[in-house]
Amino acid sequence: MFDLLIDLDPSRGRQAGLEDALRRGVTSGQLTAGARLPSTRALAKELGYARATVVAAYEQLVAEGFLVAAHGAGTSIAAVPRAPADRPRVDRPPRRYLGDFRPGEPDRSSFPRSEWMSSLRRALSASGDDLLGYGDPRGLEELRHALAAYVGRARGVVANPERIVVFGGFANALAVLAEALRGLERHMIAVEDPALPFHPELCRRAGMDIERVPVDAEGVRVDVLAQTSAAAVLVTPAHQYPLGVALAARRRTALVAWARSTDGWIIEDDYDGEFRYDRQPIGAVQGLAPERVVYGGTASKSLAAGVHLAWLVLPQALVEPVVETARWRAAVSTIEQAAFADFITRGRLDRHLRQMRAVYRRRRDAVIALLRAQAPWLTMTGIAAGLHGTVELSGPVSREAEILRVAEAHSVGMHPLSVHRHAPGPPGLVIGYSRPAGHEFTSALERLGQLVSVLPPSSG
Amino acid sequence: MFDLLIDLDPSRGRQAGLEDALRRGVTSGQLTAGARLPSTRALAKELGYARATVVAAYEQLVAEGFLVAAHGAGTSIAAVPRAPADRPRVDRPPRRYLGDFRPGEPDRSSFPRSEWMSSLRRALSASGDDLLGYGDPRGLEELRHALAAYVGRARGVVANPERIVVFGGFANALAVLAEALRGLERHMIAVEDPALPFHPELCRRAGMDIERVPVDAEGVRVDVLAQTSAAAVLVTPAHQYPLGVALAARRRTALVAWARSTDGWIIEDDYDGEFRYDRQPIGAVQGLAPERVVYGGTASKSLAAGVHLAWLVLPQALVEPVVETARWRAAVSTIEQAAFADFITRGRLDRHLRQMRAVYRRRRDAVIALLRAQAPWLTMTGIAAGLHGTVELSGPVSREAEILRVAEAHSVGMHPLSVHRHAPGPPGLVIGYSRPAGHEFTSALERLGQLVSVLPPSSG
């Protein structure tokens, strides 16, 4: 056992160092269960320590359960398992693409670091100590005020700060909302088909039953929705994910009429509503029916996914159920919330969005021009908006996997359309153009060009 | 309707300003459903705008559903509900106490603002753009490394970074963990009695059944636990909340034996394990049985509740179920996570804890001395640790409410013990001494002295 003590760490002090060494010996298996330790007197002499130091260390480890002291039988090693040596990997390290057209995230290199830093600094230096407490379960009051003004101005949302709840991302918000709806005995939720796979998955985990409602060129099929018994519907009206269509005016009206006549809830996921390139963005559906729509916004696309900030604007009837659920589920650093409030009220978010709209618009146009010139059979569906476009493929579903295999070999990342579908439908590719850093976009585009140049044209 | 247009905001531009005014008119109810709008030609002339501007504004509002365009019948107002004018209050504004002895939070004024700020700055300036993505669902790798080293060093936890998951607070962590256990068909969880009321509540919301297990002077009654069919038990071994006792050495051993023999999980809520005043802290139970214990730590007591940072160290068998659940539930700013990693690895957390241990120890001693001198019938139970002490009262439960009423009148905040209890037991007071700011503690203590001086001694 004295081998162990060679490792005594002098910076930790004699008693703590001795304890560390013994703990390590027990958990590593070097000291086996039942083995007797030397007497405190003997060990103290051996180490040149005061005996009281060794006695204190033994007592500490007895209290922690690593050692067992028996009356008159000295001190021995308790039965303690070895330290886990395995290092399981849950996620593979992220794949790097030379042409990274995977949708879902804005350009990380465009994040306004110094402006965000000054908002953090101002937030922390200007706020009183109350900022550092748990805070209101809806989120920081000043952020809810800033968001109410922002979503009103930018998205036509009728909001007051009392009805806003801040979350660590839209997934977090949807999980809480679904749980709150389940608590209200509203068990059935309709989800667009196609949609992000994690949306129905999250609702299912919260105990909801799921109906899928198809999407066509005018957006979600409200006539099909009306045939379900859904109590709520999760939609992406400004820019359907993944098909990229906008909900047509008459569908908006029909959707609101559905909610009114059934006391149903519309959950409006406005994930990229700030990005419209061909015209002024169409306002949120929420503005038409603030008492029937839950509006969800996020900073994951407008700013960065890493800030993990999202918000719901709630109808009066859902404020209390959602806040009671969020109280134990959602938690966002109050310092970060105060920084975001500062960032919005100083107009930094609007300015950043103006810049990024111009950037993403150019990128979108470049991708479309490339496809048109080199692979006219790959045509993006949907409106000029957002951070992605979708290409539907003719032919069998296997064609999708085939193209993605070639893309991987060319180090081009894209998402398959089929994983978003519940009912069978054309395969396709979901192509994001926001992810590459600004200086990498041209070479990413070249990669995409090389890829499509080797793809055989659609068989039909 | 032209009254509305008096409010045209020139900074918004003509079309946007006109749209805003019309939206406001519709949602405020000034423009009633069905009413005809003037023709675009007439309105353009009235305002002195180009007719195309008015046409574009009308079209925008038709697309959004605020206006209805009928062929040959001009444009009219759609049926849109009024804006919600109510401002519901979910939470009352926090009560301010002159003597704030409510437990649950550290001294906010002691938060090391400038050190935290420099950690934020370093995190943001030293990290590549990968920091700004969604990140690993377990949390930032560098933070998990820093935490593994920290909990090993400070709390004797056997941790490797692959088994750590970062959350926005312990409540967030517990909700995810309970949901993961339910997903594994482990439905029954045992919770200490007394305990924080939200602990069983969170488990219940996650679909778990709850058993309560009494606590005595040696901590949780493992013999009673063994009679339940619980698959997991939630405990506070280092400093029972609220009674303040430590789990005795033989109970630690018995608890681990229970977990081994039943394949049960021990959930170790180590909320204030860093604060022990009379001796070196006793290491976490997790060190005895890393494959049977879920260790939970938090920065809410060691740093500030507002940072909303907590972590679980998981047994191998629970890593995947918890990560899969956390993937959609937990979300913490990656910038903040990087800052916390910096804060730990630079030794700032240890330094802060050394300072605060000395502060809280003095405060605890002062409260105990005051009670001993002025109200010897109010005796704190438990060990010299943590940020609170509990006083059990003799007499009926009504005595507790009586004292709290007088305390409110004296502007002294404390928590009732009875709300923590499931089975009947002595009433009492939970007294925190960490909440007042440093410069306010003396006057808070005076308030407490005034309160106890007017309380009639226990009737026994």
Number of helices of chain A: 14
Beta-strand percentage of chain A? 5-15%
Q: Oligomerization state of this entry? A: homodimer
Order of helices and strands of chain A: HHHEEEHHEHEHEEHEHEEEHHHEEHEEEH
Name the strands of the widest sheet of chain A in spatial order.
4-11-10-9-8-5-6-7
Structural class of chain A: alpha/beta
Mean pLDDT of chain A: 91
| Largest interface by Cβ-Cβ < 8 Å | A-B, 96 and 97 residues
What is the rounded distance between the termini of chain A? 76 Å
Walk me through what this model shows.
With 460 residues, the first copy, chain A, is α/β, with parallel strands linked by helices. In chain A, 40% of the residues lie in helices and 14% in strands. Chain A has 14 helices and 16 strands. Chain A has helices spanning 14-28, 40-47, 51-64, 113-126, 141-155, 170-183, 198-205, 222-225, 249-262, 316-329, 334-345, 348-374, 398-409, 441-454; strands at residues 67-70, 74-77, 99-100, 164-167, 188-193, 209-216, 219-220, 232-235, 265-269, 293-298, 310-313, 380-381, 388-392, 412-413, 415-416, 428-432. In chain A, the strands form 4 sheets. In chain A, strands 4-11-10-9-8-5-6-7 form an 8-stranded mixed sheet, sandwiched between helices. In chain A, helix 9 (249-262) links the parallel strand 8 and strand 9 (265-269). In chain A, helix 1 packs across helix 3 (51-64), helix 4 (113-126) crosses helix 11 and helix 12 runs parallel beside helix 14 (441-454). The longest helix of chain A has 27 residues, at 348-374. Chain A is globular. Chain A starts with 13 loop residues before the first helix and ends in a 6-residue tail after the last helix. The model of chain A has no long low-confidence stretch (mean pLDDT 91).
